[in-house]
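B., you asked whether I could sanity-check this one before it goes into the benchmark set. Here's the sequence:
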Amino acid sequence: MENTKPAVGSIPPRTERIAKFLAIYAPHLAFGPAISALLGSLYYSEVAHFIPCELCWYQRILMYPLAALILVGVFNEDWLLPRYVLPLSISGIGVSTYHYLLQMNIFETTGVCSGGVSCALSEVNIWGFMTIPFMALIAFTLITVLMLGMLWALKSTSIRVESDEEE
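And here's what the prediction gave me:
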């Protein structure tokens, strides 16, 4: 039995199919959590009349542009989309994680949300753990994972080169 190594830059066929799928469809899949989070936050503030706290506003500031960026990236088939999206989605993970930990009383609320609605207040609590910041955390995490997958896929496959040659 010969010990052969795959050529540099080559990946197994199954992995290549996954990579091509992610390279093409990750933006489409990432748009789902982005638009859901945007519409959900609008529902909670405009229909349910919950007043957003300071950290909720920060999460909105990070999520709303994501929905627009991803939508434009889908229509333009922008291969650089992960580079625009990841800074916002990773920052969103940080803010929503911190906010969730405040609501779960892991951190003290001193100095945070000094005016208006308390960031530790949880107006929505499904199953004892799913709050609005937790839902935002899930959305930011899904978007981040999909964009990292797209970034990996574009580096692993020749799909970008192939589609650039067609133009």
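One thing to flag: Residues 14-159 form a domain with the Bromodomain-like fold (CATH 1.20.1550.10). Otherwise nothing jumped out at me.
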